[in-house]
Amino acid sequence: MTVTTATAVEIAGGQHALHNHYTKQKFFRWDGEGRLFNRMNQRMMLVSEDFVVGFQVALDEELGDAAAEIMYRCGLEWGKRDFGTFARDYEADFGHPLRSAPIEYVLTQWWWPLQTAGWGNFTFDLSRRADDLIFVDLYESAIAKSVGNIGKVACHYYAGLFASVFGELLGGQELSGIEIQCYSMGEDFCKFLIGSAKRINAAQFWVREGATATEVIDRL
Description:
It is built from 8 helices and 9 strands. It has 220 residues and is α+β, with helices and mostly antiparallel strands. It folds into 2 domains: 1-46, no CATH class; 47-219, Muramoyl-pentapeptide Carboxypeptidase, domain 2. It has a 4-stranded antiparallel β-sheet, with helices on both faces.
C-alpha cells in the first residue's frame, strides 16, 4: 500500500495545517524503514483483532483482578502524554491558547486522530458538571469490538484516558473514571463516568453489586 501525507493546504495565500481528515492516505506515514507515524509524528503500530484479544487474555491470566487496574493506569498515562502533545500542536496550529476555545471544540480536535487510528467515536455530556459528573458514550471501541461479548466491561484503557484528558481540560483536576456499560456485555455501546474519586468509588461499588448503568446514574 502506498501512503502519502498532507500536512498543510493553501488557503487565501497562506499555509494552514489540515484538521479532521479521516483518510488513511493523509493520516499515516511510513518512514521507509518499516516504521509508521501519524501526521503528528507520533509512532503508530497496526495490529489485528487477534493481537488485541491475545494481549487482553494474557493480562487477565497473568495478573488476575489486577489486570483492570493496570490497564486503567496505562490509560491515565496515555491520556496525559497524548493530550500534552495535542495541546502543544493545537496552540502552534491555531495560534491561541487551548483553554480559550470552547471545550466541545477542543475535544473534537483532540479526538479525530484517535478516531482515524481506529479507536472509535465518542459523545460526551457535560450537563452534570456541577454534580461532579461527566458522561461519555463510546461507539466502536477497538477493545470491546475485538474481544466480543465476554460478559464484563473491557475498556479500562479508555476509562483512564478519558479521566486524564477531562481532568486536564478542567484545569488540571485529579479525576477518576469507570466504565459502567460495555459492548462486551452485549450493549450497543460503551458508557463511562468521569468525576471525583469519591463519586467513582461509589459507582464502582454499585457496579460490583450488579447495578446497571441506569441504576448507577440514578443513584448518583
